[in-house]
Amino acid sequence: MTDHAAQAETLVLDDVTKSFGAVAALRSGSLRVRPGSIHALVGENGAGKSTLVKIVAGVYRRDSGEFLFQGQPVDFGSTAESKAAGIAVIYQEPTLFPDLSVTENIFMGRQPLGSGRRIDRARMHAEAEGLFARLGVHIDPRRPARGLSIADQQIIEIAKAISLDASLLIMDEPTAALSGVEVERLFAVARSLRDEGRALVFISHRFEEVFDLCDTVTVMRDGSYVSTKAIAETTVDQLVAEMVGREVSELFPKTPAEIGDVVLDVRGLSTAGVFHDVSFQVRAGEIVALAGLVGAGRSEIARAVFGVDAYDDGSVELLGKRVPPRNPRAAIRAGMAFVPEDRRKQGLVTEASVARNVAGVIRRGLTTAGLLTGRAENRAARPWAGRLEVKTSALDMNAATMSGGNQQKVVIAKWLATEPTLLIIDEPTRGIDVGTKSEVHRLLSDLAGQGLAILMISSELPEVLGMADRVLVVCEGRITADIARDDATPENVMRAATNAAGTDPNPTTTGAEVPA
Amino acid sequence: MTTLTQTPGGTGTPTPGPRTYADYSRPFWQRVVLSREFAVIALLIAAIVYSRSQVDYFSGPQTMYYLFRDSASILLLALPMTAIIVTGEIDLSVASTVGLTSVAFGMLHVDAGLSVVVAALVAIAIGALCGAFNGFLVAYVGLPSIAVTIGTLALFRGIAAGLLGTESRTDFPDSWTDLAKERIIEDQPYPMILIPFVVLAVLFALLLHFSPFGRGVYEIGLNDEAAHFTGVDVARTKAILFVLAGTVAGFVGIYTTLVTGVARAENSVGLELQVIAAVLLGGVSIFGGRGALPGVIAGVLLIGVIQRAMLLNGQTINVINIVIGVLLVLSVMSTSLLALGRNVVSASKGARSSGRSSDSAGKRSLS
Questions:
Q1: Angle (nearest 5°) at CA B257 between B254 and B258
Q2: Least Cα separation, residue B96 to chain A (angstroms)
Q3: B19 and A386 in contact by Cβ < 8 A?
Q4: Mean of the pLDDT values across residues A160-179?
Q5: Highest mean pLDDT among A272-276, A382-386, B29-33, B98-102
Q6: Could you tell me if B16 lies within 8 Å of chain A, comparing CB atoms?
Q7: Do the Cβ atoms of B131 and B138 come closer than 8 Å?
Q8: Alpha-carbon gap, residue A357 to B53, rounded angstroms
């Protein structure tokens, strides 16, 4: 890690920590970036890369640790401060003002003024043209930002950074939505910036890009620094091993269950630009995990199967019967349950009581003569709250007052109350404490043991490997691997997820143009 | 948010093992007395008691009769309006629907020669159609209800004016116009219209507070995304409520025509704002998800009592409007102040209120 310490480093982060409540997002983040270098930052989901970047960008304040920028200790309280210091961050999806012109976007908030304090448009356009010429791209500075491709929007963000004379550029997965040609152009720009002596940080899940573009690579895992190496001295295998590097077998014991008949049969499910030709089956007693990187399309597949979202093509069958598309109610009636990704927004009504949330799906069956009383809801909710050991003083307490783990129990209780045959559970343990986490894992294992078919989506590799009987890896909207429990290793899942083993670095439909 | 008192629901054996839960964190009387509905009802009773003792002629035989008769339209329209506002939507076109159905009823009976009953049924169907139009645009096309119903507010009134211009139809059988004004029991202050109102009020109360459909209505208001994920058909629920609003507005159109004896396009101009004001005064949150019918009914009557008492006291309508306006602002403020107080309390208790406030902020920006 001290290999390059001799040179004056643009950015030094040493043992930086950041916690959100009880969750430590960053335990010990370290990063040293030299001027004139393109530095890769890699790690699996939740490794703390984004938190680190947000601390550098001034979005978060670190809890402790050293943070030097150009040799000076800094402590940014806002993104404006970090920008003023010379740090530019380019996100995966740029945030431009769609109705303003390209030039106006570049000079937002610091427009050059002419006589009488009027904005000097001519000078602005000339400067913008100069910037684009320097970057070697052709974008009309007068056109509105709306309708520009993601790639062009990123170029505009970069132009903005150069016009600010940023000495550090951080690119957070800039290539995720770009096509091959666009990636090449971006890399050419990045290299020319490097040659000007600026420091660049490049975050990517695509190893071939990391090896193509970068000269140094830092690996993070579980919120901590792992290693920094020169690209020439490392290999893909080494990086993958370092990204995963931990013993996982003992963490989440899933008891073997008898695998029964096919419960869920998904065939050729496609939605343009989101996922393509997705086919898989889930059997009774089986836990199938959809693994992959954030944004690979896993949640979207689950939402389409349950009918919350529409899909363009394909079919979903439950116990041999076709489940109509875009109709969650029909899916529920057929025997599906869906614990969604975002508890507070999708999983439950936080402003409603525990009882109403738990009885929320089954309430149509609780009526007497068509009438539903609070008493009936309480009676129905009580055993399920008890079974999941929801911690609350009374059934009329608002779910908003509860901890994340308890809220998750309420969501699971509400779906188990429907006595489903298939449980789809998206990020079962995200943002909940360790104790509740293992409770949820034990519960899922028990449920599978009782013959429930479970489709689990998880961004935590240990969870996937510990719980799943079968791992389906989703990469860029396609299922790229189907790995049985015994064969699944962190390495082969990670490889399939990042497409590192893939033959084609850019398959199809990646250059989806997103309307600004 | 008081502490847990001895729980009637939980069995008295705190042995380890399966958890037991109390049904409620507060005793019954607290849940009743500390609700907003109760505050409005208490205010209504206080206003009646005060007016009867202090305002001349208020306790006279005609006062309450006219109070009920004149408030009937607002009472009726407030029922579906409550449900719509609970979902976080609004219907500004109800009074225009009243005008249109009034004109349609008059023309169908007088010009087309249909019997009163048939003409009324057709007029109610027209009202339902108006509601369905609103509902389609709001629920299925996904347009904001405030914009849609401002449009149909003008549209429906415009159609009514186009049909009848500045003319009016007054040729209705006396038996029907008398029925609209009659009292249920001789010398009692209860007009006939209270019978359909009570029936509808009970039906709406059951629908909103004692049915799975009603639970969905509240869930949509609190978090429509979660409602969708739970299998509530958000679009259909909203569409049904708009159709109900149109249907009730059609009924009110007929009542208004018969009780005044005139079918014309200008009937009930501006009534929608009185309806919405009363609903909000009754404790329904404009952001959706909160409120109950008893409070709304008390809110309508409270406005009626204050108006009548002040009129009898010789105040001008302007002063009355000022008083009611101030009352409404105070009532809306009281919700915010109450919520603020609750947040302060829960924050000082160290409860997780951050996510909650951000949730409601998100909700607000959506609406």
A1: 85
A2: 34
A3: yes
A4: 83
A5: B98-102
A6: no
A7: no
A8: 48
CB contact under 8 A, B24 and A396: yes
The interface predicted TM-score (ipTM) is: 0.83
User: Is B219 in CB contact (< 8 Å) with chain A?
Assistant: yes
Q: How would you write A429-480 as a 3-class SS string? A: CCCCCHHHHHHHHHHHHHHHHCCCEEEEECCCHHHHHHHCCEEEEEECCEEE
Q: Is A383 left (phi over 0), alpha (psi -120 to 50) or beta?
A: alpha
A373, A387, A393 ranked by CB distance to B210: nearest? A373
pTM for this one? 0.77
Q: Which residue has the tokens 């920008």?
A: A83
Q: Which of A288, A284, A238 is nearest to A262 (CA)?
A: A284
Nearest Cα of chain B lies from the Cα of A252 at a distance, in angstroms, of 25
Domains of chain B: 28-338 (1.10.3470)
Which residue among A356, A374, A401 places its CB closest to the CB of B352?
Answer: A401
Q: State whether residue B319 sits within 8 Å of chain A by CB.
A: no
pLDDT the model gives residue A357: 94
Q: Which two tokens stand for residue A263?
A: 């419960």
Min Cα–Cα distance to chain B from A22, Å = 12
Q: Do B211 and A329 touch (CB under 8 A)?
A: no
The answer to whether the Cβ–Cβ distance between B25 and A329 falls below 8 Å is no
Among B230, B359, B360, beta carbon nearest to A361: B230
Which residue in A has a C-alpha nearest to residue B18's C-alpha? A386
DSSP state letter for A64: E
Strands (E), A173-259: 199-203, 216-221, 224-230
Which residues of chain B does A326 touch, with a Cβ-Cβ cutoff of 8 Å?
none
Q: Pinpoint the residues of chain A covered by CATH 3.40.50.300.
A: 11-96+148-244, 248-335+420-516
- Joined together, the tokens standing for residue B228 give 């969708």
Q: Which residues pair with A66 in a beta bridge?
A: A14
Cβ of B226 within 8 Å of Cβ of A347? The answer is yes
Question: Two tokens at A224?
Answer: 């901590």
For chain B, report the end-to-end CA distance as a whole number of angstroms: 28
Contact B215 A356 (CB under 8 A): yes
pLDDT tens profile A64-118: 999 999 989 999 988 888 988 999 988 877 778 988 999 999 988 788 888 888 8
pLDDT, one tens digit per residue, over A113-139 is 888 888 888 888 998 998 888 877 888
User: CATH assignment of A11-96+148-244, given 3.20.20.140, 2.60.450.10, 3.30.1780.10, 3.40.50.300?
Assistant: 3.40.50.300
Measured CA to CA, the distance from residue B204 to residue B222 in angstroms comes to 20
Pick the CATH number of A248-335+420-516 from 3.40.250.10, 3.90.550.10, 2.80.10.50, 3.40.50.300: 3.40.50.300
Q: Which of residues 184-213 of B touch A (CB under 8 A)?
A: 206, 210-212
What is the full DSSP assignment across B112-158? S---HHHHHHHHHHHHHHHHHHHHIIIIIS---HHHHHHHHHHHHHH
DSSP state of A50: H
Nearest CA in chain A to B360: A351
Q: What region does B169 belong to: left with phi over 0, alpha with psi -120 to 50, or beta?
A: beta
Answer whether A266's CB lies under 8 Å from A305's CB.
Answer: yes
Residue in chain B closest to A307 (alpha carbons) equals B229
Q: Do A361 and B231 touch (CB under 8 A)?
A: yes
